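Model the whole thing, not chain by chain.
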Amino acid sequence: MSKILFKDLAEYFGKEIEIQGFVDKIRDLQYVQFVVLRDSTGKIQMTIEKNEDNKILNDIVSSMTKESTILAKGTVFEQEKVKLRGMEFIPSNIEITSKSEEELPIDILDYNNKSKQDLRLDNRFLDLRLDKNYLIFKGQTLAEMAMREYWIKNDFIEIHSPKILGTASETGAEVFELEYFGKKVYLAQSPQFYKQMAMGAGFNNVFEIGPVFRAENSHTAYHATEFTSVDCEISWIKSHEEVMDLEEEKLVHVMKTLKETIGDNFKTIFKKEIMVPENRFPRIPFLEAKQIVQENYKYFGEKSYDFDRREEELICLYAKKKYNSEFVFVTDYPFEARPFYHMLDEKTNLTKSFDLLYKGIEITTGAQREHRIDVLKKQALEKDMSLDSIDFYLNFFKFGMPPHGGYGFGLTRFLMRLFEVDSIRDVTFLYRGPNRVMP
RNA sequence: GGUCCGGUAGUGUAGUGGUUAACAUGCCAGUCUGUCACACUGGAGAUCGCGGGUUCAAGUCCCGUCCGGACCGCCA
């Protein structure tokens, strides 16, 4: 790769180089012109004096518009006078490689006239030019890398399960129907059944990072109809505690990696620190968590068997205060709130399941799965499911199935809370929701 | 799906039923000895989401409709 990234320009002081970038700002004064250029890694000021020798360059700058792309040849120098990084680029040649229209549909400078979200999403390619948006996707890339690093080190296999399904994948959410050569098929809501199949295949430990589809008509800041789900499943476990150990260890590695690689940028742009967990994540049984919320915050949720949004926020507040943890596991939910394949604890009759909450929102659901086919069938019937519709799935359990468990992790929800942005739309490359399928 | 709120120059907002719809920013032109959110002067730019109604008069009030947002429910 020969392109010189702007972040590395200090390595080239005094050398004749070629740079390319977007025109960020133009300040055309009487005797001198300043053009600030931008690439994804930084900015650099280009300075051109107005005189006879520079006439050609001066005319090019005069005809330039912001957000155009240019290619410039010249020399970069240390220059104390320049507040932007204390350096400047003196061009000997400038070529406008693509000229932008004068007026942009959104205000990407974003000082005080922050454009409305709907308009920004219509023009997402411009919105994404902001450095904070670049950092979000850099963060996503690194988070995924850190997870893969952890899994590969621990002998996991990566799978790619199908997204076109002959039957719904049963997360409890609504499914999208599709016409498929005259038949009705569904978009996957979750790789759930297939990662369990991998357990039956003897793969021991698997993971998948991929898209899932939910036909929920949800109008909130933390729902999307298509999002990236991070799933993993492990064999030969004795309880859901082991699944939580796994997720916790993985997340600590992710947070460490993020802090090390983008911690400084994160602080500059978002004015916040990435907090690497120092203690174990608290694990609070659901029934106890209910009580804690009621006793400490005098809040009584309507449903006895599940949390509402407010309860999720309050238990996170409690975990932060009492354990100084941004993460908290809530465990052992009643069967009523869980899908049929979660294993029940024989003593308590509660599920061997957990949710992981992060800064006030649910980012994971996990459990030990029921691997005994007779019990599994019984639980499906209790949830009013037809055994015919999941016949292919039950089949996985007929010929030896290791005890296993796993979890699904909402990557976008995680990013949303990591960067503390208000909407899942800001951490999704192109958001898909009930009212948006374009661009 | 439910409740509430909103839609006015490119963008973000203001706008007591009554002149030429205001402000900021952006854009264009000019002025300006190195700017750095440059500054200054001037200019262009709005069928006030759409349709109907009330009224002498509607951006403003009423009804409908479309689009969007927040919260709730559902879930990652």
